[in-house]
Amino acid sequence: MAKYFDVHPANPQPRTISTVVDSIRSGALVAYPTDSCYALGCQLGNRDAIGRIKSIRNLDDRHHFTLVCHDFAQLAQFVRVDNDVFRAVKAATPGSYTFILPATKEVPRQLLHPKKKTVGVRIPDHVVTQALVAELGEPLLSSTLLLPDEEEPLTQGWEIKERLDHEVDAVIDSGDCGTEPTTVIDFSGDEPEIVRRGAGDVSRFE
């Protein structure tokens, strides 16, 4: 059964955040809120949890996982960013955007797009998510909590606990965080490509 953590949305309890992060370091797969919707998260090199995310979401090897980062300095360790992209990404973070960029050698191979060698990165504007990645000290490997054959992500912690009780190890509930996933911008080509229109304003990339 998944452990259930009720976390204050504006002032997350440090002890609770520390407990959750300890479980992530021990191999846990967690469902947690972001500034767009709920996500599934685990530690970078956790092959078992990555496999569980793929199973829950019915994903293939072409899926872009996302590294949820604390700040731009951390993000820049895991993706290659030239000057133009730097300015565009910097201006849009923190926020409800995921950026697809060429990965550095810091990213485990199983997380890369098999042909493009790219990975998704984002810096969320959400107090609880920021507290988690700050305590973890490295990006949280994530994927939107969108179940197969469903049009909208799950948004309520109690519902996630009921439906995924035996598939995740922990659920963090800090209130409703909306149903719209991030806007996804692919910067791996010559021009930015809007892959998904979501919570983030796309006008700056058009």
TrEMBL record:
SUPFAM superfamilies for the chain: YrdC/RibB (SSF55821)
A Pfam family of this chain: Sua5_yciO_yrdC
Transmembrane segments: none
UniProt superkingdom: Bacteria
Residue intervals of the YrdC-like domain: 14-200
Range of residues in the leader sequence: none
InterPro entries to which the protein is assigned, alphabetical: DHBP_synth_RibB-like_a/b_dom, Sua5-like_dom, SUA5_domain
PANTHER family per the UniProt record, alphabetical: DHBP SYNTHASE RIBB-LIKE ALPHA/BETA DOMAIN-CONTAINING PROTEIN, THREONYLCARBAMOYL-AMP SYNTHASE
NCBIfam families from the UniProt entry: L-threonylcarbamoyladenylate synthase
Protein name: Threonylcarbamoyl-AMP synthase
Organism: Streptomyces durocortorensis
Lineage of origin: Bacteria, Bacillati, Actinomycetota, Actinomycetes, Kitasatosporales
